[in-house]
Amino acid sequence: MNIHEYQAKEIFREYGVPVPRGEVAFSGPEAKEIAQKLGGDLWVVKAQIHAGGRGKAGGVKLAKSPEEVEKIAEEMLGMTLVTHQTGPEGKKVEKVYIEEGADIQKEYYLGMVLDRSSEMPVMMASTEGGMEIEEVAAKNPEKIIKVAIDPTIGFQGFHGRKLAFGLGLSKEEIRPFIQFAEALYKVYMDKDANLIEINPLIKTGDGKFLALDAKMGFDDNALFRHPDIHEMRDLSEEDPVEHEAEKYGLSYVNLDGNVGCMVNGAGLAMATMDIIKYEGGEPANFLDVGGGASAETVAKGFELILQDENVKSIFVNIFGGIVRCDRIANGILQATKQVEVNVPVVVRLDGTNAEEAAEILKNANIPNIIPATDLADGAKKAVAAAKGELQ
Amino acid sequence: MSILVHKDTKVIVQGFTGKEGTFHSQQCIDYGTKIVGGVTPGKGGQTHLDRPVFNTVKEAVDATGATVSMIFVPPAFTADAVMEAADAGIDLAVIITEGAPVKDMMYAKMYATKKGMKTIGPNCPGIITAEECKIGIMPGFIFKKGPVGLISKSGTLTYEASNQVVKEGLGITTAVGIGGDPIIGLSYKQLLPLFEADPETEAIVMIGEIGGTLEIEAAEFIKQNITKPVVAFIAGQTAPKGKRMGHAGAIISGGQGTAQEKMEALRNAGVHVVESPADIGKTVAHVLGKK
């Protein structure tokens, strides 16, 4: 789960990670009021969406008076921001963050993720602040300083020094930087984060470090013990179909193709997308209906897939293990009664009682259900059906 | 022969009396696995599925001589259960539970490693030595005995691969579902040498997916150390970047962990990489000279 910049900054404040003063606004007048409250002579209006690259897309603007803050906020609210991370459809701006202007002397990058190789959290710093870290990693990997932090010893001074000296900080800057990094480590661990990015981290004219931006993501498996974080979830940032799927314990990801997929198991679901492509088609979605694949989950699966108007055929690919295929076949038949399925459905059931299942589907004699014998056969038929070359 | 588990392996179940634990323990017993007891704190002294229940893993190990534990306890308590098993001297913990926090598993694995306990999973189907010992939730009948070792991040794709191998008239020595979480126990690199050393295993099937670098590390290892033929499939060639595909670990981040880079690394290591998941069985038969 991801949260907005303003929410991440709230958490930062709680942990003593220095951030500029600021507040979130939902309207122009509110934005103006916040600017007046903050005082000063320079403010930044920042669109709150879950995507990077806002600056280039016009989602971050400077204002020199509270009136200008109001004007910019009004322009930004309701606009659709297209950045390299939002996809071509963009994201609608529903809130803006009003922040005091900062005296930027130098920009850095500071981030934390789980390093899956060392199986420890790793803190990364770079002097290339403001740039995409992926780009830096590709072009100048030597400019990224990484330290893995063994959680059994926690954040130590030497971790901080390695980063600080790596960044070329002066003697006076090292102490405030290490304090900053240590507080950030605590945020990461305490909140079960799986990603923190501060880009840029800035050094101000008076030698302080401030998180000018803040991005945080969390381990979904740990949300049960962080109700406060869970409450920060913004459903308007998520694909409504994906969210609907989640409510039913299904895992769905929308894609661009026209062959709908319904599969049990995440690995097999990915493999099914792959084989559709391999056979010359394009998958419309990833959908894992879980090990059970009951009539209810299959019916829900059909509903989810058919919300996508591009879908021209559906490939149901179920490997029955503990749950027998004959039961799944009956579930599919029941589901087709609950949901009107108006595209060809290629069904491949293998595993326990696969033959009985084939018999059940054959005897049901539903014209748009096409049985398949194995994975390759199913994929070929589903691709042909999507192209209108079957029947 | 086989790897890690066989017909005489004594197994206890943590989370024995719960719904999942009960159902799958019974399935394992029916398969022939020597389930010698279980642990449910507070239910010590009772009998469940004709086997003794203990309050602690230590008591269970002392009374039964079990060396392996199958773990079904809920996600919030999984790490605790794993660490208890390690503390009690268990050799191998097979963690079936799905949804355990990554941070918890990070600590649990560190402690297990310190205590010399191997782990498989979490969020995995388990391990099965065909026709001898099933420790997990996989449908046992798919795994007929034969010369192929199997290592996979995915459950149903493991069944699919085994099924294809069996349809070619071959079979499985041991199949290990290593799980698809960001932090897992035994991985390709630790399991490949076991299959290399197992006289009954003639070929190895390796099923990976997007996310992380385990497959890349495996490729490097295979190049140096593995002489038996390896057939690999990487799921997620068509997965978009930045989206979690079911498994928590299956995400391409920052352009890293793509199926394409993994396939290329494996090919460079001399692995027979199949592009279509339907070609796994055929390719195994081919490399073993059966076709």
Layout of strands and helices, then pairs:
The complex is a heterodimer of chains A (391) and B (291).
Chain A: H1 5-14, E1 22-25, H2 28-38, E2 43-47, E3 60-63, H3 66-76, E4 80-81, E5 91-92, E6 96-100, E7 104-115, E8 120-126, H4 133-139, E9 144-148, H5 157-166, H6 171-190, E10 193-204, E11 209-211, E12 215-218, H7 227-230, H8 240-247, E13 251-254, E14 259-263, H9 266-278, E15 285-288, H10 295-306, E16 313-320, H11 325-338, E17 345-351, H12 354-364, E18 369-372, H13 375-386
Parallel strand pairs in A: 14-16, 16-17, 17-18
Antiparallel strand pairs in A: 1-6, 2-3, 2-6, 4-5, 7-8, 7-10, 8-9, 10-11, 10-12, 13-15
Chain B: E1 10-14, H1 19-31, E2 34-39, E3 47-48, E4 51-54, H2 57-64, E5 68-71, H3 78-87, E6 92-95, H4 102-115, E7 118-120, E8 126-129, E9 133-136, E10 145-152, H5 155-167, E11 172-177, H6 188-197, E12 203-209, H7 214-225, E13 230-235, H8 259-268, E14 272-273, H9 280-287
Parallel strand pairs in B: 1-2, 1-5, 2-4, 5-6, 6-7, 10-11, 10-12, 12-13, 13-14
Antiparallel strand pairs in B: 3-4, 8-9, 8-11
Helix pairs in contact in B: 3-4, 5-9, 6-7, 7-8
Description:
The complex is a heterodimer of chains A (391) and B (291). Chain A has 13 helices and 18 strands. In chain A, strand 7 and strand 8 form a beta hairpin. Chain B has 291 residues and is α/β, with parallel strands linked by helices. In chain B, helix 3 packs parallel to helix 4 and helix 6 runs parallel beside helix 7. Chain B starts with 9 loop residues before the first strand and ends with a helix. The mean pLDDT of chain B is 94. Classes of the chains: A alpha+beta (391), B alpha/beta (291). At the A-B interface, helix 4, helix 9 and helix 13 of A face helix 4 and helix 5 of B.
